[in-house]
Design a protein that fits this description.
Oligomer: single chain
Number of domains: 1
CATH architecture: 2-Layer Sandwich
Largest sheet: 5 strands, antiparallel
Structural class: alpha+beta
Radius of gyration: 15 Å
Low-confidence stretches: 10-31, 35-50
Number of strands: 5
Strand content: 15-25%
Shape: globular
Helix content: 25-40%
Number of helices: 3
CATH class: Alpha Beta
CATH topology: Beta-lactamase Inhibitory Protein, Chain:B, domain 1
Mean pLDDT: 76
């Protein structure tokens, strides 16, 4: 079963990426569940993100709790089974994370970076801006 899901995952990502490209447009009834940013994920029994620079490729395989530790609470969260999409928007780009349930819980399987105006933005520059935005947010 897991091998089948692993093989189907790339096919499932295409429509999810198209949905994420909508930039979280308002939904009407009957759509997938959307959570508010104030809803926290469960605490995983996995180790937290280790110190050192986080790379875009390093996002893959992180648990939901590790992502929140590293990047903060996403501005937008959408459940679209079997995936959950987390979105981090900053001034120059949007970082979309696609999480799937694995044996250890929800894990990042894929990420996508895009610019709001279609101009080029590097994965590294976008992640750096998301990380900087987290450190600039006031903690209450």
């Amino acid at each position: 079963m897991m091998q089948t899901m692993t093989k189907l995952r790339p096919l499932l990502l295409l429509p999810l990426m198209a949905l994420a490209a909508c930039n979280g447009a308002a939904q009407t009834g009957g759509g997938p569940a959307v959570e508010s940013p104030s809803q926290r994920t469960e605490t995983a029994a996995l180790p937290r993100v280790q110190s050192g620079p986080l790379t875009p490729e390093g996002l893959k395989g992180l648990s939901a709790a590790q992502v929140e530790d590293a990047l903060g609470t996403p501005g937008f969260r959408r459940r679209d089974p079997p995936a959950e999409i987390w979105q981090y928007r900053v001034k120059s780009c949007t970082l979309d994370l696609f999480l799937y349930v694995e044996t250890a819980g929800r894990m990042v399987a894929h990420y996508a970076v895009r610019s709001p105006v279609g101009s080029p933005v590097s994965d590294r520059a976008c992640l750096d801006e998301v990380l900087n935005a987290k450190t600039e947010r006031p903690v209450s």
